[in-house]
TrEMBL record:
Catalysis: reaction(s): oxaloacetate + acetyl-CoA + H2O = citrate + CoA + H(+)
Protein name: Citrate synthase
A GO BP entry: tricarboxylic acid cycle
Classification via InterPro entries: 2-MeCitrate/Citrate_synth_II (IPR011278), Citrate_synth-like_lrg_a-sub (IPR016142), Citrate_synth-like_sm_a-sub (IPR016143), Citrate_synthase (IPR002020), Citrate_synthase_AS (IPR019810), Citrate_synthase_bac-typ (IPR024176), Citrate_synthase_sf (IPR036969)
Keywords associated with the record: Transferase, Tricarboxylic acid cycle
Domain of life: Bacteria
GO CC terms: cytosol
MF (Gene Ontology): citrate synthase activity
PANTHER family listed in its UniProt record: CITRATE SYNTHASE (PTHR11739), CITRATE SYNTHASE, PEROXISOMAL (PTHR11739:SF4)
Pfam families given in the database record: Citrate_synt
Pathway(s) per entry: Carbohydrate metabolism; tricarboxylic acid cycle
Record-annotated active site: H254, D307
């Protein structure tokens, strides 16, 4: 293999055939199983869209009852795990906790667990892990799941003991994060699945990959940046400084979208609507950051991505910034598991190549420098 064969970051390489979602990076479109994301957020809620992604069509009434009951009955964690979580260091990052607890759950399951039922079971438990950690870390009593609440309401209830005013908006934000083709965490988890490993290993891989700031971890970094800027007047200088130092501006740019990310557009509109009624912290600074970044990068087509406005919304709900990426994971597990199962139907282990540029034919010498068999 030659250097010319290298596809840095696998840009432009297709690794699977999939009917789960379609991203049109030129037109800024995202489609789940044939439906445009705008229609889904307008008309559906988390459970319906999860069903769509897993099963390929929107649910009828019986199917809706089935998915709601599957997702609401499996929320509890084994008590031993909750006890172990109480021993975790209180400053452990929520993504590290989520990754570790998902991995621990694998010890409570039979090894042959890569079925849709197991995927749904794990999806049901992720919000519980996140909310329990929030409560444990803050020395608050745990709030157990409530079966009569839907997936997103139950999460907010377990976090805060009540439902914030804009909880429907939170549910819709989960829909926006649910699926996005062969992104880094979906690819990583599909690789793990392609070895016929178990679903807990698959999702542990995905969470570890999502955590990085170039991927899902960007939402936390965006809020850090907005806090650091602190004042709308300081935006141009702050951004120009990042550009001068060749630093990435978090929440901007995308491998596929070369226009406005449709998810960012929807999130921005919601934040705009909320801010018409009440103050939304950091929104004015964020709008200015967007103006400056888009202007500075007008030749490179760099626009806000999904991670730019989502954190402002979560912050408005009272969710601490270090929890933002766990919210992303709570939604994206649907896409991860759908892809892992789809790929399994025509499975082949992933085994790419690297292009060797190290030395060859070296003579082996012992520690004293004496050539062996020389
Ligand atoms: N800030 C400054 N410059 C940027 C940015 C940015 N956010 N994004 C891209 N560029 C520039 C980059 O420097 C490069 O310039 P040049 O051609 O002169 O070297 C050009 O645009 C192409 O960028 P790239 O890094 O080669 O693009 P990529 O496809 O490898 O990376 C990305 C995509 C999302 C990792 C990158 O845009 C980035 O680091 N963004 C900031 C982190 C972020 O917001 N991540 C969330 C991604 S969307 C949701 C998700 O997947 O979680």
């Amino acid at each position: 293999m030659k250097k010319e064969d290298l596809k840095h970051g696998l840009e432009g390489v297709a690794v699977a055939i999939s009917s789960i979602s379609y991203v049109d990076g030129e037109k800024g479109k995202l489609v789940y199983r044939g439906f445009e994301i705008e229609d889904l957020v307008e008309n559906s809620y988390f459970e319906e869209v999860a069903y769509l992604i897993w099963f390929g069509s929107l649910p009828n009434e019986n199917e809706e009852d089935f998915i709601k009951s599957m997702l609401s009955k499996k929320r509890n964690l084994p008590e031993n795990i909750v006890e172990m979580m109480r021993l975790f260091p209180e400053n452990a990052h929520p993504m590290a906790v989520l990754r570790s607890v998902v991995s621990m759950l694998g010890m409570y399951s039979k090894e042959d667990n890569s079925t849709l039922e197991n995927a749904i079971n794990l999806t049901a438990k992720i919000p519980t892990i996140i909310a329990y950690w929030y409560r444990i870390k803050n020395n608050l009593p745990i709030i157990y799941p409530e079966e009569h609440l839907n997936h997103s309401e139950n999460f907010l209830y377990m976090m805060f003991g009540e439902l914030p005013e804009y909880s429907k908006c939170f549910d819709k934000a989960l829909i926006l994060h649910m699926e996005q083709g062969m992104n880094a965490s979906t690819f990583a988890s599909t690789v793990t699945s392609s070895t016929l490993s178990d679903i807990y290993s698959v999702i542990t891989t995905a969470i570890g990959t999502l955590k990085g700031p170039l991927h899902g971890g960007a939402n936390e970094k965006v809020l850090e940046m907005l806090e650091e800027i602190g004042d709308i007047e300081k935006v141009p200088e702050y951004i120009d400084n990042l550009i001068r130092n060749k630093k990435k501006i978090m929440g901007f740019g995308h491998r596929i979208y070369k226009t406005y990310d449709p998810r960012a557009k929807i999130l921005k509109k919601w934040v705009q609507e909320i801010s018409a009624h009440e103050k939304v912290d950091f929104f004015d600074i964020a709008l200015k950051v967007e103006d400056v970044v888009v202007e500075r990068f007008k030749d490179k087509n760099i626009y806000p991505n999904v991670d730019f406005y989502s954190g402002i919304l979560y912050n408005h709900f009272g969710i601490p910034k270090e929890f933002f990426t766990t919210i992303f994971a709570m939604a994206r597990i649907v896409g991860w598991t759908a892809h892992a199962m789809e790929y399994r139907k025509n499975n082949r282990i992933f085994r790419p190549r690297s292009i060797y540029n190290g030395p060859k034919d070296l003579k082996y010498k012992d520690m004293k420098g004496v050539e062996i068999n020389g």
